[in-house]
Amino acid sequence: MKKDKTLETFKIDVGSTSFSCVIKDMPTKNLNVRIKPNFIIHISKPRGMRVSEVEAFLMQKQQWLLKSAHSINKTYTRRSSYITLTTVVIFDEEIERHQINDVNKYLEQSLLEYMHERRTYYDNCVKESPSLSVKVMRGKWGLCKVKERSIVLNRKLAHYPKGAVDYVLAHEYAHLLVANHSAAFYKVLQKLCPNYKYWIQYLSEN
């Protein structure tokens, strides 16, 4: 176990894999561990907890650390390849970038057009006609503004299979009828997207 001069950062070796750890003291009772790409671990610890205690906790979670880190790095690498200097992935298909003047605008337009293609089905299912839009979002694939009767999807979905877009649309449409994630919500979602569980897993892994 190698340690830097400061208490805020240290390294741990799990087998042949080296993790860089960054610690932040927080006014909390619990230890929070977040795995980032490139084998980086962000840790929020209660004030007063010793770094040695954090190290001991991490060493007890070696298999989890390795499994999570490799999964996150795999996803990060895949997502990094969606837009390169020469190609762009649109709905899980690679096209030449020279055909596109403005990549971000193209992604937004492509996704919005597909949303409108699919809206007739969902509108009829829930007897609603929400406004649809696309924007850049962090931490969520979609958003339903129930009071405004509007649905927003993450622009990044333009890279994914259309089945994934259908699932997120169905999820947000279901919220027009049931605002929470109760059993009633999943009953509606099941009707709108029978294979929703597959796409939940797909998006979590990709």
Quick description:
The protein is α/β, with parallel strands linked by helices and 206 residues long. It is 43% helix and 24% strand.
Cα radius of gyration in angstroms: 21 Å
The CATH homologous superfamily of the largest domain is named: Metalloproteases ("zincins"), catalytic domain
Proportion of residues in β-strands: 15-25%
Secondary structure tally, helices: 6
CATH fold group of the largest domain: Zincin-like
Question: How many domain regions?
Answer: 2
Q: What is the average of the pLDDT values? A: 89
- List low-pLDDT spans: 1-6
Approximate helicity band: 40-55%
CA-CA gap between termini: 32 Å
Q: What pattern of helices and strands is seen along the backbone?
A: EEEEHHEEHEEEHHH
CATH class of the largest domain: Alpha Beta
- In CATH, the architecture of the largest domain is 2-Layer Sandwich
Structure, explained:
This protein has about 210 residues and is an alpha/beta fold. The protein folds into 2 domains: about 70 residues, no CATH class; about 100 residues, 2-Layer Sandwich (Zincin-like). It contains 6 helices and 9 strands. The strands form 3 sheets. Strands 1-2-4-3 form a 4-stranded mixed sheet, covered by helices on one side. A hairpin with a 2-residue loop joins strand 5 and strand 6. Helix 3 crosses helix 4 and helix 4 packs across helix 5. It starts with 8 loop residues before the first strand and ends with a helix. The N terminus is likely disordered.
